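Table S2 (continued). Query chain:
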Amino acid sequence: MKSMKTMIFIFSSVLLLVTGNLFSQSLTLRVEGFEKVGGKLYVAIFNSEESFRKKPCAAFAVDVKDKTVIVPCKGLPIGTYAISMYQDENNNGKLDTAAFGIPTEKYGFSNDAKGVMGPPSYEKCSFSFSKDMTLTIHLN
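Corresponding output:
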């Protein structure tokens, strides 16, 4: 009976350790290219091609207080992700655009991906996240 309890304890400990490691990675976003300090940076994180630019698995906004913004993202499980973001300089809650939908505010994507006649694809933006990493994104 004692050995069974010991085995259960060891199994539970190992399971907790392995599970904890799956969620302990830290993704840090380093966002560069702000021309103006102010407003908010809206960040959306996607975990599939089907949800890309439609339904993020995580989304948040941070104040733009400097020409480079560091954003810690904790709690993301190991996986493949794509990120899109934009600076809402005038705090109206949306990405402002000019004729033909061309953005007038700064925006960016993971891998510094660029699209042709529109936003880039999930494939161009996607990256594998399995350990602590810093991802630098330059705004356009």
